[in-house]
Write a structure and sequence with these properties.
By secondary structure, this protein is mainly alpha-helical. The chain is built from 22 helices and five strands. 48% of the residues are buried. The structure holds flavin-adenine dinucleotide (FAD).
C-alpha cells in the first residue's frame, strides 16, 4: 500500500529521513502538501515565500517521475480522505516543535485511522537528545552549545534517485489557485525577486558561502551592508535545506582551517536552541518568559504613531529606518539590524516585544516561530537567556561601529539623497500609497530624543513592580 509523505517545512528531497525511509520500503510514495490550518495562520511574507518553495519542490519531484499532490483543507480530514482515496496505509512526516504544529500533528496522529509517523529532520538534534544533567531542557545557550557540539548529528542522507509511483495518481489542486501571495499587497513580486527558493538554490548558496566567505564570517556577519552571512535562513525555515547539511558543510570548512566556520556552527546551534526552548516552554512565543515583565508599564500599543513610524521606516533614526525598509522590500533583515530595530522598539519606545514580533511575523520571509519569539524575548530582556534590560543598544554607536560609512543607510533610505540607489527607491514601490511616502520627502526628523527615551525606559525598568 502507498505511503503518503506529508511535506510541511521540509521542502526538499536530500536529507529527508521520512522520504528516505519511505523509499527504502519499495512501496509507492505519494508526496502531498496541504494548504491547511498551519499555512492559513502564516503572515503575508512567509506565506508567499512558502508558495515559492512548494512550486520548486513540485518541480524536483516531477524530475524524479513523481508528483506533488496539493489539497486545501484542515489537515486531519484532508489526510484521512486522501488516504481513503489512494488506499494509503501510512502518512509519514517530519516532526515540528512549535505549539500550533504539535497540536495539529497530535490530532492527525490520533485520528488518522492509518499509521501516522513523525521523523526527525527539522533540527540538528531532537529536543529529547540534548538535556541538562537534571534531565530538562537547557535555558542558557552556552552550556546548550557545549552539549550540542559534543554530539554528531550524523551524515546527511542522499536524495532518492526514484520514487515508486502509485498505480493511479489522485487529483491535485493548482498551486496558483491558492493565491499564497494574495496578502502581499505591498509588493509580492518585489519581495519574490529577492528570494532564493528551492533546494537547488539553497545548496548553491551554501556552497558559495562555504567556498568564498565562511573564513571571514565571524567578523563580516556583523556589517549589514555586506553580504557576509549565509542568507540561508529562508531556506532553513522552509526546510529547502537541512540544518544537518549546513552543519556538515561547516565542520568540513573547519577541518580545512576556516576559522569563521565555528561561528557558523554556533549560529546553527542558536536555531536548535530556540526550537528546543519553544518545545520545552511553548508559552515563550506568546508570553513573557520572565513573569515579572507582565506588569511592566509598556508605553505604546500596536497603533501608536511611534510604532507606526517604526513599521514604516520613518523614525528618523536612519539605521533603524534602513532596517525596516530592507525587510519591507526584501523580506529579509540583517541580524544586527534586527537587534537594533528591536531594541529601539522595546526599549526607547517601551513597546511590548509582541508588537514587534507580530510585525516581523508578517514581513519576514524567513519567519520562524521559535527564532522570532526567542530573539524578541532576548532583545527585550524578558527571555530565559536574555540581554539585560538596562543594556540598551545605542543606534548611533551601532551605526558608527557597523555602518561607519553609512552604506547600509544609503542603500535603503532615499530621503536626502540626490541620486538614491534602486534599493532605496524600491521601498516606495512596495510601500502602500496610504503611507503617503515619497523619495523626495525631507529626511524624517527623529520621532524621539534617544537620550531622554533611554533614561525614561531605564527609570520605568527600575521602578517596575517586582515579584514577591
Ligand atoms: P547566518 O548568520 O548565516 O546564520 C546561519 C543560520 O543560523 C541562519 O540561517 C539561521 O537559521 C540560524 N541563526 C542565525 N542567527 C540566529 C539566531 N539569533 N537565532 C536563531 N537562529 C539563528 N531568524 C529566523 O530564521 N527567523 C526569524 O523569524 C527570526 N527573527 C528574529 C527576530 C529578531 C528580533 C532577531 C534579533 C533575530 C531574529 N532571527 C530570526 C535570527 C537572525 O537574525 C536570522 O536567523 C539571520 O539574520 C538570518 O540570516 P542568515 O541566514 O544570513 O544567518
Amino acid at each position: 500500500t502507498p505511503i503518503l509523505i506529508w511535506f510541511r517545512r521540509d521542502l526538499r528531497l536530500t536529507d529527508h529521513p521520512a522520504l528516505s525511509a519511505a523509499t527504502a520500503t519499495g512501496r509507492p510514495v505519494i508526496p502531498v502538501f496541504l494548504c491547511d490550518e498551519g499555512v492559513e495562520a502564516l503572515g503575508a511574507a512567509p506565506r508567499m515565500r512558502l508558495g515559492l518553495g512548494v512550486a520548486e519542490l513540485a518541480r524536483s519531484l516531477e524530475a524524479l517521475g513523481s508528483r506533488l499532490i496539493l489539497r486545501r483543507g484542515a489537515a486531519l480530514p484532508t489526510l484521512r480522505a486522501l488516504a481513503a482515496e489512494t488506499g494509503a496505509g501510512a502518512v509519514w512526516w517530519t516532526r515540528l516543535h512549535d505549539p500550533l504544529s504539535r497540536r495539529r500533528d497530535d490530532g492527525v496522529m490520533q485520528g488518522l485511522g492509518v499509521e501516522g509517523r513523525a521523523f526527525p529532520g527539522h533540527l540538528l538534534h531532537e529536543p529529547e537528545a540534548i538535556r541538562t544533567g537534571a534531565g530538562g531542557g537547557f535555558k542558557v545557550y552556552g552550556p546548550f552549545f557545549r552539549a550540542l557540539r559534543a554530539r554528531d548529528p550524523g551524515e546527511p542522507l542522499p536524495a532518492p534517485s526514484r520514487l515508486a509511483p502509485p498505480r493511479t495518481w489522485p487529483q491535485s489542486e493548482e498551486l496558483a489557485g491558492w493565491r499564497l501571495d494574495a496578502a502581499m499587497n505591498r509588493g509580492g513580486p518585489i519581495v519574490a525577486a529577492w528570494q532564493n527558493p528551492g533546494e537547488a538554490r539553497a545548496r548553491e548558496r551554501l556552497d558559495r558561502f562555504v567556498a568564498e566567505r565562511i573564513g571571514g564570517y565571524a567578523k563580516a556577519r556583523d556589517y549589514p551592508a555586506q553580504d557576509g552571512s549565509s542568507r540561508l535562513s529562508e531556506n532553513l525555515t522552509t526546510g529547502e535545506i537541512s540544518a544537518r547539511t549546513c552543519w556538515h558543510a561547516g565542520t568540513a570548512a573547519l577541518d580545512r582551517g576556516e576559522a569563521g566556520a565555528e561561528q557558523f556552527l554556533k549560529e546553527l546551534a542558536w536555531r536548535d536552541f530556540s526550537h528546543h526552548l519553544l518545545f520545552h516552554s511553548p508559552g515563550i512565543a506568546t508570553d513573557h518568559w520572565r513573569p515579572e515583565w507582565r506588569s511592566f508599564p509598556w508605553a505604546q500599543d500596536a497603533d501608536s504613531p511611534l510604532v507606526r513610524a517604526w513599521q514604516r521606516g520613518r523614525t528618523g533614526i536612519r539605521l533603524v529606518d534602513a532596517a525596516m525598509r530592507e525587510m519591507f522590500v526584501t523580506g529579509r533583515m540583517h541580524n544586527r539590524a534586527r537587534m537594533i530595530a528591536a531594541s529601539l522598539l522595546t526599549k526607547h519606545m517601551m513597546t511590548d516585544w509582541r508588537v514587534g514580533l507580530k510585525w516581523f511575523e508578517d514581513c519576514l520571509t524567513d519567519w520562524d516561530p521559535a527564532a522570532n519569539a526567542v530573539n524578541w524575548q532576548w532583545v527585550a530582556g524578558s527571555g530565559p537567556d536574555a540581554s539585560p534590560f538596562f543594556r540598551i543598544f545605542s543606534p548611533q554607536s551601532q551605526a558608527k561601529a557597523y555602518d561607519g560609512k553609512g552604506e547600509y543607510e544609503r542603500m535603503w533610505v532615499a530621503e536626502g539623497q540626490a541620486a538614491p540607489p534602486a534599493t532605496a527607491l524600491s521601498f516606495f514601490d512596495a510601500a502602500p500609497r496610504s503611507w503617503g511616502m515619497s523619495p523626495r520627502d525631507p529626511i524624517p526628523a527623529p520621532v524621539l530624543d534617544l537620550a531622554i527615551a533611554r533614561e525614561a525606559a531605564l527609570a520605568a525598568f527600575r521602578a517596575r513592580p517586582r515579584p514577591g
